[in-house]
Automatic annotation (TrEMBL):
Its EC number is 1.1.1.95. It comes from Durio zibethinus. Keywords: Amino-acid biosynthesis, Chloroplast, NAD, Oxidoreductase, Plastid, Serine biosynthesis, Transit peptide. SMART domains: AdoHcyase_NAD (SM00997). The keyword Coiled coil does not apply. This is D-3-phosphoglycerate dehydrogenase. It is found in: Plastid, Chloroplast. Transmembrane segments: none annotated. One of its GO terms (biological process) is L-serine biosynthetic process. One of its GO terms (cellular component) is chloroplast stroma. Residues 531-603 form the ACT domain. It catalyses: (2R)-3-phosphoglycerate + NAD(+) = 3-phosphooxypyruvate + NADH + H(+). Belongs to the D-isomer specific 2-hydroxyacid dehydrogenase family. CDD domains: ACT_3PGDH-xct, PGDH_4.
Amino acid sequence: MSTMASLKTPTLKNPSLSLTSKSRLPSAFSATSLNNLRFSRSQPQRRVLIITASAASFSNKPTVLVAEKLGEAGLTLLKQFANVDCSYNLSPEELCTKISLCDALIVRSGTKVNREVFESSGGRLKVVGRAGVGIDNVDLAAATEHGCLVVNAPTANTVAAAEHGIALLAAMARNVAQADASVKAEKWQRNKYVGVSLVGKTLAILGFGKVGSEVARRAKGLGMHVIAHDPYAPADRARAIGVELVSFEEAIATADFISLHMPLTPATSKMLNDETFARMKKGVRIVNVARGGVIDEEALVRALDAGIVAQAALDVFTEEPPQQDSKLVQHERVTVTPHLGASTIEAQEGVAIEIAEAVVGALKGELAATAVNAPMVPAEVLTELKPYVELAEKLGRLAVQLVAGGSGVQNVKVSYASSRAPDDLDTRLLRAMITKGIIEPITSVFVNLVNADYTAKQRGLRITEERILLDGLSENPLESIQVQIANVESKFASAISETGEIKVEGRVKDGIPHLTKVGSFGVDVSLEGSIILCRQVDQPGMIGKVGSILGEENVNVNFMSVGRIAPRKQAVMAIGVDEQPSKESLKRIGDVPAIEEFVFLKL
Ligand SMILES: NC(=O)C1=CN([C@@H]2O[C@H](COP(=O)(O)OP(=O)(O)OC[C@H]3O[C@@H](n4cnc5c(N)ncnc54)[C@H](O)[C@@H]3O)[C@@H](O)[C@H]2O)C=CC1
Ligand SMILES: O=C(O)C(=O)COP(=O)(O)O
């Protein structure tokens, strides 16, 4: 590595590096990333960047494909921001054809959003909104690989699902559906439909999350003894509603009724099977408003026929709709509904609003609070981290532009100096933005919070993080962020630190990100436009000379700062500019005799 490479280094070979990468993006919204700060302030340079990137499409509204019925309130919200295409009952082929014209897709449980959908989108699809909880119909791995955010609506249908669970429980215990069909068939079978009581019976809730705990609360009101199994549920939440958390074994062995409320995952798939049915209390009754796949349906038929399971009430099925001749559906002791758990007027309005807000927010570039395949960061933390998110991306962007052509970037070290305890500072967001800043200027890949780690890994980029714990208490989550790129040469030799890495450091001042160190030189320039870094022999009049070259071309200088080793020795001058200087002006700056090297960096 040469630490004194190329005195009088020429200007950046391709000063429009980051523009070029953006202009390859298929949609204007790709350019917004998950960080909308660049649109929020009046920063001429950045506005130019976006407009140049995709002038035509930026003026257009994004297109949202709503592939399943969504409440009116949600549609109204969407229409204020986007072109909304409500196309229900699309075949998989039709969905794949349409998707390349869409920036967002909203589905419920009836649409399979598989890998083909993401591949067919040609990179345009930026958000999939699941208007409900379960995301087992969305291929999350494929979404993440394609940088597509998946958001859901996790809370608005909780009560509806819990109420349906209770409805099924009571209807099953008293044979309501069977008796209803019998009366309508002009029979009057009072002895046949004698039921069982709920009071005093043990109900085991499997999956003590949002729905499970609401079912528990209601079942307690019915006088049931409620136990629950959930490996991840906090015991105090269970205790608070008088529910005992027990092992899976104890739950299934002691329950008179079992109600399922876990997500469908590889771990929960066919959790109830021949083996587990065999360990249940004879005559157990089962309710499933979670997902059909958590039960081995053929095993359930066997358990019903063997009398192990007395009755089942099912809202969900492995295949939806199930086959007409399904033994399970047709079984006399099975009550079925067509996936109605979330289907109340109230829940559907709530879900529609929840998902519309999440999708619009994501399209605007805001960080989603209900992201499924990206870190979920609480809103208050997001607000606090916002300027640091911008700082992180810009430091990454600056650091990579300092790398000399031909040196592959592989090892990046990020140091966060903070007085917060490590648990109090979530750096995933910052790491993702540094990754974005590093990768985007040198590739055509679009990086966001969703695919940052995946993209870094794909490209062999290793990002290690270090926490520097500062003494004392500070209101700021972070004091500074430092980005170092190891084992590379720099086109601006002064950016190489004493230890041989390219080093840039920054901090947030009054809500604005600042560059505070380049190599071993302290500087102070706000990261708001682009930057010219010059190394010079420290002497009076330098700021004036460079300033007047830029002034002649009407390039507005927003900040200048000089960091020197010692008076009249070497110094690094950082100049923040609002407009991009012409090549001629940059050359004239390079020709100033005292300037030993310089570089122009786009933010
Ligand atoms: N039928 C319908 O229309 C509706 C169905 N649902 C389904 O209900 C289920 C629960 O939804 P929410 O309560 O909102 O989700 P949630 O995420 O709040 O709760 C799920 C709970 O399951 C637990 N869990 C995970 N693995 C488990 C395992 N191996 N054993 C036991 N528990 C386990 C989790 O720790 C979590 O506490 C989901 O599958 C969802 O898709 C939700 C709404 C409507
Ligand atoms: O939210 C869920 O997980 C549900 O199962 C509800 O599904 P739906 O939106 O009614 O197709």
